[in-house]
Design brief:
The chain is α/β, with parallel strands linked by helices and about 550 residues long. The protein is about 35% helix and about 20% strand. It contains 19 helices and 23 strands. It binds zinc ion.
Length: about 550
């Protein structure tokens, strides 16, 4: 007797082979038979008319903190995501000495836009080692977690304040290598580093002070395990990105490790640069190097208010300084002072096309309610003012709690994005799930791949899209026993309607500890999500109490 049988399924098994009809029998968390299977089971699911695929793997998330209060990684799980990779971009939550906790919270706040209050009220800091952090999140895990260890954390542990001042000496490098080895032994899938990020004082993060000698030594340790190096390159510049591609390729060949960099966006103004980056990536793959660029499916949308700092303003030093370093009252005072206001407006003029397109998304006052949904150009016209003035005025009228949306800022030319997603050496990812919680909601990037690029644009087959989100990702990351529907593999499964699967509209919820808000999206067309043979979410019952998630690849001993 099987534990579970999924009957009448259209099976897309993750390998890229054509869909076929059959049943899937599951026993002890694994697929035991597939195809022409019969027999009895404790539970059966009728998947008639539905597509059954391996659970999706999201390779670029920042769920590190959320996993401490939400082992289901909501709402990613409801979109069919059964494995997530946290710890990207040089930041993880371990290994971390008690004295560095607030420093790390500051970096998460600045780089990943996670509120201080969520850490203060949602996190009980009772670990220091990577192993103990994994034990903590494992208590309540509904999804699988393939965790990266952040390079900035290794530096902070070994070098303290000096981690943000200088290169490391040989002893310090040796200690970082031994820390990394411990993390990999405990189950880390690799290490992440960043060449661009800044902390909450706008100083470079620790990983940016590493010299090549240090990075080589750490890559050599990754090579002992064959594990991943993830980096954030200077993604805004094609030539600098190409230099990083070459650097990663050299490390990949020398230490026989996979490497990946994110993000890579394509816009009208950088299409030629992206072509050059891809040409170099393909040349490097031809030499045997593995240098996977991560490309997201969705266009870039950014929401903001002046109540919290937004990375949208990072290229406007005066605006950003005020948002980052001023209190609520100081921001109101700056907006109200004619001289400061004039200075801000002058600086905003550098990006004149942006402001008129911003949409007023949300306000509290009844008086401004009729303006919600209008662009700043429309509001400026009604009020007889300029778009930037309208934005400042609305913010003052709403006591800074006016929310704006910059929609379709880039990565929105379907033809260009589709051709990039179809490149054999492009890795689909970069959702940033769990981060930037008031700026955008990336849940459903997977559904969007199907709705936009499989159905509407006809740019990719269903089988290829599934393969890219499942077995290809598992292969790239060395995630074992996941990504294919075949006997012996873990039964991580998504059941969905291929004509319906999509991401829902973005909306605002208050489910972050410390009365925090974030934007989320529901899934559309997803029917059932199974982790290790147990239903973890279904459209009918919602989230279940199943906690079968594992750490992947898991401890070595
Ligand atoms: Zn990231």
């Amino acid at each position: 007797m099987f534990d579970l049988i999924i009957r009448n399924a259209t099976i897309v098994d993750g390998s890229g082979s054509p869909a076929y009809s059959g049943n899937i029998a599951i026993q002890d968390g694994r697929i035991s038979e597939i195809g022409d299977v019969d027999g009895r089971a404790h539970r059966s699911i009728d998947a008639g008319g539905k597509t059954v695929t391996p659970g999706f793997i999201d390779p670029h998330t920042h769920f590190d903190a959320q996993l401490l209060w939400d082992g289901q990684a909501r709402p990613a799980l409801a979109h069919g995501v059964t494995t997530i990779v946290p710890g990207n971009c040089s930041l993880s939550l371990a290994p971390l000495k008690a004295k560095h906790r607030m420093k790390l919270v500051g970096m998460f706040n600045q780089i990943e836009e996670m509120p201080h209050k969520a850490f203060a009220e949602g996190v009980e800091w009772n670990w220091e080692s990577f192993e103990d952090y994994l034990t903590r999140i494992s208590e309540n895990l509904a999804v699988n977690v393939a965790p990266l260890v952040g390079h900035s954390l290794l530096r902070l542990w070994v070098m303290d304040d000096d981690s943000m001042q200088r290169t490391a000496n040989d002893d310090e490098i040796a200690e970082m290598c031994s820390m990394l080895r411990q993390c990999l032994d405990a189950g880390a899938v690799g290490m992440s580093t960043s060449f661009v990020d800044m902390d909450e004082t706008l100083q470079p993060v620790p990983s940016r002070y590493a010299d090549n000698h240090e990075l080589e030594a750490l890559a050599a340790v990754l090579g002992e395990f064959g594990r991943m190096l993830q980096i954030v390159p200077e993604f805004y510049d094609g030539d600098l990105t190409i230099a990083r591609v070459d650097q990663l390729a050299e490390l990949s060949r020398k230490y026989d490790i996979p490497t990946t960099f994110s993000p890579l966006f394509v816009n009208r103004d950088n299409a030629a640069a992206v072509d050059r980056v891809m040409a170099r990536v393909n040349e490097q793959f031809a030499t045997g190097a593995k240098v996977w660029p991560q490309v997201q499916t969705r266009p870039i949308d950014i929401s903001f208010s002046f109540a919290v700092p937004s990375l949208l303003f990072i290229r406007f030093p005066t605006w950003y300084r005020i948002m980052r370093f001023s209190s609520h009252d100081e921001i109101v005072a700056a907006f109200s002072d004619p001289d400061q206001r004039e200075e801000l407006i002058q600086e905003a003029a550098r990006m004149a096309p942006l402001w008129p397109t911003l949409v007023l998304r949300q306000v509290a006052s009844a008086g401004n309610q009729p303006l919600v949904g209008k662009t700043l150009a429309e509001i400026a016209e009604i009020r007889g003012t300029t778009p930037v003035d309208a934005m400042i005025d609305l913010s003052l009228e709403e006591d800074l709690d006016a929310h704006f949306l910059s929609a379709n800022m880039g990565h929105n030319d379907d033809e260009r994005v589709a051709s990039l997603l179809n490149e054999p050496n492009v890795h689909i990812g970069a959702s940033d799930g769990g981060a930037h919680i008031l700026s955008f909601s990336t849940y459903g990037d997977t559904g969007y791949l199907f709705s936009r690029f499989v159905r509407e644009c006809n740019a990719m087959s269903l089988e290829t899209a599934v393969k890219k989100l499942t077995s290809e990702t598992a292969d790239i990351w060395g995630i074992p026993e996941r990504g294919l529907l075949q006997p012996g593999y873990k039964a991580d499964i998504a059941i969905f309607d291929k004509e319906q699967i999509d991401r829902g509209d973005e909306y605002y919820v208050q489910d972050v500890p410390g009365d925090g808000s974030r934007y989320v999206r529901d899934s559309i067309g997803v029917d059932t999500v199974i982790v290790a043979g147990e239903v973890a979410w279904s459209a009918v019952d919602g989230y279940t109490s199943s906690v079968r998630g594992e750490i992947l690849p898991g401890a070595t001993a």
